[in-house]
Description:
Oligomer: single chain
Bound molecules: fe (ii) ion
Order of helices and strands: HHEEHHHHHHHHHHH
Number of strands: 2
Amino acid sequence: MKHTDTFDDFIKKEGDLREQSFWNQFGVSQNVMIPVKLDKENNVTHMFVVNYEGFPENGLANFFDITGIRFREGLAGMTIFQGPLEYSLQKGYIGTLLKISRSIDQCDMHTRFHSIRSGLWAHRLAQFLGLNSQEAESIALAGKIHDVGKVFIPKSILTKPGILEPEEWSLVKQHPTLGSVLMKPSHELKSIIPYVQAHHENYDGTGYPQGLSGDEIPLGARILTVADAFTTITEGRVYKKAASSQEAVRELERCSEKQFDPLVVKAMGKLVASGKVRDWMGIW
Ligand SMILES: [Fe+2]
Ligand SMILES: [Fe+2]
């Protein structure tokens, strides 16, 4: 695909996403995103979002609507390339996805360190389970960008305190697949796409998007799922107070073998009990 193609075309070619009509109501499918400025590390910091109905202001507004945030360093964005990106662009692309993930977290004060803490716990769990350092690093990176697909979901849905309408829930359930789509252009991210794609699969097969179960779910994803849930339970939400680490482990144990891989849950319990992981709400 050429980066001048619209996102609609990309979705059509991929064939694994929802019908466009559904997307149109959110102003997603009309946009062409064009990066116009890179920072020193080649992260995309400014971009035009071209919208068929109003160029370019409405597009930018739509983009902000979709992300629901203002980026501290300017307007961060993304683009979709075909084929291998050169090394510096690869790094820049990953940096941009990391920035977008951090920005999505800023939508809500409870989630402000969600990606970074998920990455931390996924890393420690992978080490604890004896995976080699390269694999542990990969799982950590997957943790830090696992929810990047939420960039296409309106902030009003992401931060809605009540129960989601069926169509809203249906959109939220697309975020693992959308995250994979954003990761596809980068060869460096290729090996961890399955982890992001499967981070909401349940051990007993009741999860999404594919309903995989047991060993069908890649180990990296099973680790990520536990790290993600532990992070979510301990950060709390508007409607739910944050739990302590010990309470979170008890909740994980309650859902062991249903939602989570029992081996990973056991490892999490031991990690928390050891007190060796410093989980502070900041940069690690
Ligand atoms: Fe998620
Ligand atoms: Fe998450």
